[in-house]
Structures are given as C-alpha cells and as structure tokens.
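Researcher: I'd like a structural prediction for the single chain below. Treat it as a standalone chain; there are no partners to consider.
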Amino acid sequence: MRLCQRCGVELTPQNWYVCHQKIGAFVCKVCTKTPKTYQSEITQIQSIPKNFMIWLAGFVDGDGCITLEKVGTTRATPRYTPKLNIVNTNRNVIQYIQRTLKCGCVSTNRPRSINHKTVWSYDLVGCIRVRTVLEIIEPYLRVKNEQCALIIKWTTRHQSRRTPYDDEDNEMIERIRFLNRRGNGV
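Model: Treating it as a single chain, here is the predicted structure.
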C-alpha cells in the first residue's frame, strides 16, 4: 500500500502520479494541482446548494470523522493534515458526495468476514478544501461541532506547511484525539 507523500491519501492506480521518477516520490493527482486550481475548487464548493450542505452536515455528524491525520511519519517530528472522512456501506451515497463536491477520493475496504458488507469511504484531505467545506457546514453540525471548530482554527494557523507546531497546536492535536476516540462518549 502506497500513500501520497504530500497528503497521506492511499494511492490507487487511478489516483497516483509519479512526481519525480528518479527519486520515486509518489503523490496523488489532487496534490499535483496548482494553487489556481484550488481557487476554482473553492468557488465550486461555495456554489453548492445550501440544502446539500445541510444534508452533508447531518451525514458527517452520523457517519463522518473530522480529524488531523499524521503524515510524513519518517521525520523526527510528524506533520498533520486535516481530513474529513465519511464512511457508509452505500456506494451510491458516497459517490454522490464526491460528484457534488467535485473533489476528494472514494475508496473501499474489503469486508472482514462474509457477514460484513463492503464499506465505502470518502476522504477529503488538505487545509484549503477541508476548511472550505467545514466553514459551510459548521452552523448545521450538532455532534461534531467542536472538532469542526478546532480544524478550522488549525487550518487558519497552518496555511503554510512550514509553520512549526507550538504548545497550542499540540493541545489541539490531543483534543481532536480525545474527541474522536472510540468507546463511551464524552
């Protein structure tokens, strides 16, 4: 299994691109886009109908995860990128979300046993895209509103990849971990 070396998304034959063949840096096609393309994606996301975004907020509350994903674990100091993940067993719903947002990746996991259904996953990774979606759906979130506020704050602080982490960042990372942990609710 290969991961994009920029955003950490799992690479499939459909979404990978060899950035530097001599070095062997594998990145997803999303990460190869220029900043100008990001601006057009932001405009597209902001033009999506309000009723879809309200529906999406409910879906994120029920079947979603708003988190910071660790990337670049080979470094002494790991880096984190914001991630919006939605999981469901209905392929059509997950593909509908991707088609409507016009960004993100859809993947599948094989069932663990014959008694389990195939699980489909929608992943949206990166400061610009995740912040744009979260800023729109934030007023409609009921369960994951604290994670949403933390990630929006994170993306505002870390628009540059070179920004070093401080104590406040480490507190945000720990708070996100606490809110997203499995087991009994908060």
